[in-house]
Amino acid sequence: MRCPFCAHDDSQVKDSRPSEDNTSIRRRRQCEGCGARFTTFERVQLREVVVVKSGERREPFDRSKIEQSVSLACRKRPVTQERLDQLVSGIQRQIETMGDAEVPSKMIGEMVMEGLRQLDSVAYIRFASVYRDFTEARDFEEFASSVQEVSGRT
Ligand SMILES: [Zn+2]
Q1: Which residue of 19, 47, 71, 99 lies most exposed, with the fewest beta carbons within 10 A?
Q2: Phi and psi at residue 65, in whole multiples of 5°?
């Protein structure tokens, strides 16, 4: 696994353990180049899913984009990383088990909003206020930058 700090190609696994809900394996790694430590997660991916974005653009489903939006919405809120992981895993599982090879970006945005609504009211309002401003022309991944602006103001 490439080091995110210095881009060295190899890292050593120092520790490996299942997450609390046992849906992923968490590995602590150390870069063999610069010695930096970082964490990777191993998760089951049931199927390849393509996300249909505005203008009919398509790209492979990327869990990290949901993670980014969700963690920004929950910034400085009393929500644990474990709960965030569960929310994102739940959305991922829903998408992967829907049976469709293609999922509209907008639908993922709705799932994120619904998940946040149950998790934390402030995070939900942050996300929803941005979400509602969105027109068809924009994608849920762009929430991340907008959510950052909104939460930066409050
Ligand atoms: Zn490194």
Answers
A1: 99
A2: -70, -35
Report CA(58)–ligand 1 centroid distance (Å): 33
Run of H or E residues at 127: helix 121-133
Q: What CA–CA distances, in Å, run from 103 to 10, 44, 94?
A: 35, 19, 11
* 3-state SS class at 137: coil
Q: CA-to-CA distance for 123 and 126, rounded, in angstroms?
A: 5
Question: Separation of 95 CA from ligand 1 center, angstroms?
Answer: 34
Residue corresponding to tokens 């203008």:
55
Distance 55 CA to ligand 1 centre (A): 39
Q: What is the C-alpha to C-alpha distance for residues 91 and 108, in angstroms, rounded to an integer?
A: 8
Distance CA 10, CA 29 (A): 10
Tell me the CA–centroid distance for residue 25 and ligand 1, in Å: 22
Q: DSSP 3-state assignment of 116?
A: helix
This prediction's pTM: 0.62
